[in-house]
């Protein structure tokens, strides 16, 4: 008899045995190790990492945090911000189950609502369609097709994006990679850009963002955790292959 799907919330006690969802096939990789360290640091700041399990195997997960400790570049007060939603066993309502879990938790914490940042050009952000089905509404947008969706519980002021995106790009003329440890794939994304830069004899600078103040000041996109900028132009906000990175860099040489 098949076991009923269950919800498992990660914490410091079960992190080692249960592990995060992404890159779990490579538990010794730098990205996976960095992610677990990041999770341990942020659990005490209100971060939630919740997996749905089917027959003791992970079927999907959701990660969210209070806005004051989130990894998305958005202003607001007393909101929860969803970082990630990913489900690989589809057709069973697991995505909805995880969203409902987050909404219930946010209400229990007496939050004003729940926020998610979406972008149709990358799987590194959640797809907005499922959120629209759960009464999220679009309230703001930003360059590169970023959208801000919110599910509000009361009449609190709306969250919003910064508006100085173009100015932020002017900070970086040299090839610069801005990154955090929130996503385990950031390390691979970084290495691909560095390999491409080396082939073109371009020096790459890396800025490891370690706190929200730095994130809110420097990130050139709402996504926050990974950006590549060269000659004051955004090259990428998600992983590129070495070939794709070379192609984009050549356009600016």
Automatic annotation (TrEMBL):
Entries under CDD domains matching the protein: NAT_SF
Pfam families: Acetyltransf_1
Domain of life assignment: Bacteria
Domain N-acetyltransferase, residue spans: 25-115
GO molecular function annotation: acyltransferase activity, transferring groups other than amino-acyl groups
Listed name of the protein: Acetyltransferase
């Amino acid at each position: 008899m098949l076991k009923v799907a269950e919800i498992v919330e990660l914490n410091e006690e079960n992190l080692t045995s249960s592990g995060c969802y992404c890159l779990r096939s490579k538990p010794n990789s730098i990205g996976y190790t960095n992610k677990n360290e990041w999770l341990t640091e942020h659990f005490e700041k209100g971060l939630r990492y919740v997996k749905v399990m089917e027959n003791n195997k992970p079927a999907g997960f959701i990660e969210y945090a209070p806005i004051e400790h989130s990894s998305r570049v958005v202003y607001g007060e007393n909101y929860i911000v969803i970082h990630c939603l990913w489900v690989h066993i589809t057709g069973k309502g697991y995505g909805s189950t995880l969203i409902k879990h987050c909404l219930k938790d946010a209400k229990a914490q007496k939050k004003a609502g729940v926020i998610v940042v979406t972008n149709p050009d990358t799987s590194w952000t959640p797809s907005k369609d499922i959120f629209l089905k759960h009464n999220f509404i679009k309230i703001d947008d930003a360059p590169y097709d970023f959208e801000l969706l919110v599910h509000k519980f009361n009449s609190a002021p709306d969250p919003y994006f910064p508006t100085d995106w173009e100015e932020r790009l002017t900070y970086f003329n040299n090839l610069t990679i801005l990154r955090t440890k929130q996503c385990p794939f950031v390390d691979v994304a970084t290495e691909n850009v560095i390999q491409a830069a080396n082939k073109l004899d371009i020096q790459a600078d890396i800025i490891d963002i370690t706190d929200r103040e730095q994130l809110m000041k420097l990130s050139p996109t709402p996504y926050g955790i990974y950006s590549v900028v060269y000659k004051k132009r955004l090259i990428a906000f998600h992983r590129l292959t070495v070939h794709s990175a070379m192609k984009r860099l050549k356009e600016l040489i």
